[in-house]
């Protein structure tokens, strides 16, 4: 039996970069979170309504669009200590498995590639319950997803010890995605 969605049951969407974003937060000085994000989220989602486990997702984030609301910090995070966007301008995700986890909820397991390192991650996803028609006649859907990664597993090891103990930055990075999807004809 094939695990690819069939034409009769599959619906293909493209991610609308104008209405989608990827965000993160990381603990700073062990006292508060610093937040940032990216625009430029693109990709495709093929939803198999007859067999949701066959749904496929391929997404990419333009790492050069990083913003943390501080130009100096943005420049540092885009440089070699962190993202190294000159060498690695894209962050990508490709699903491997989709597991229903409640009404409109999913566990999506896939490969996250970041700074040339690929690791399996699990996204906790909540999808929209129905499509909506926009003013231009397009059918749209959407989803939100969250996960936590360890930045050290992706080669992001920059840090500094604190005089009071601990480190300047946590190893855990909380990631949040909001995507709006346009149904392809």
CATH class group: Mainly Beta
Described by the principal axes of the CA atoms, the overall outline is elongated
Task: Characterize the biggest β-sheet.
Answer: 8 strands, antiparallel, barrel
- Helical fraction equals under 10%
Q: What is the percentage of strand-forming residues?
A: over 45%
Evaluate the radius of gyration: 18 Å
Q: Helix count, per DSSP?
A: 1
Strand order of the largest sheet: 1-4-5-6-7-8-10-11
Class inferred from helices and paired strands? mainly beta
Low-confidence segments, given as residue ranges, are: none
> Any guess at the CATH architecture?
Beta Barrel
What is the H/E string? EEEEEHEEEEEE
Our count of domains comes out at 1
CATH structural fold name: Lipocalin
Number of strands: 11
Q: Overall pLDDT, averaged? A: 92
Keywords:
11 strands; 185 residues; mainly beta; Lipocalin
Characterise the protein shown here.
The chain is mostly beta strands. It has one domain (10-183): Lipid/polyisoprenoid-binding, YceI-like (Lipocalin), CATH 2.40.128. The protein is 4% helix and 52% strand. It is built from 1 helix and 11 strands, in the order βββββαββββββ. It has one helix spanning 71-78, and strands spanning 10-15, 21-28, 32-38, 41-48, 56-62, 90-100, 105-114, 117-127, 132-133, 139-150, 169-183. An 8-stranded antiparallel barrel has the order 1-4-5-6-7-8-10-11. The longest helix is centred in the middle third of the chain and has 8 residues, at 71-78.
